[in-house]
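Quick log. Single chain, no ligands specified.
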Amino acid sequence: PPAPPGLKTLSSYIDLPKTLALPPKEIEYIWRLRHASLPTSLCAIIPSTTYLRIQATARKHPHFILPLPREGSSGAEIHFLQWSFPAPDTATVVFTHLAEYKLRGEFSQPHTTITMHLELMKEKGLVLMQGQVLEGRGVSVEEARWLILCLQKFYGAEDGDHLGRKRLLERFSQGDEAFKVEELVDEAEKII
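-> predicted structure:
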């Protein structure tokens, strides 16, 4: 089926038939080069096995919060993330300041949006990620990268890995009163 209006598919960025003929290392190089000159751009190449773990967790836990440590303070700023799967070959995550989300709900403005393109997953074993940090929304590109790293560590943990992270995801999704932001911050600090 065609992508919903306004959704950019992988073919909006690269020539898909030509790309399918390339080895994975060249695809990775081209993808990174494609995004290197844009200062607010984010990109990554995710092995399909890692992405499938992340996706399975995201479908169970489409909403979560992640801490962003603030230099010069002992605290962290909390960010809300939302997964969506708008097309069969696309997954999207938006990141919003939690305070903004609490204030405006579904009308809140995200500061970072990332999209995973799955078109190369079967043939090449790769998922191409691209995203954008919106200027003036209070998050730098480096901070957005940190949030994406946290997302990968919380959502992509293999079975038996980091049971604390999995427990936090489950407690948050269930609205369990045992969910503690302090534990979330502690687990995120272990990622460093």
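The beta strands are 41-47, 63-69, 76-87, 90-97, 112-117, 126-133.
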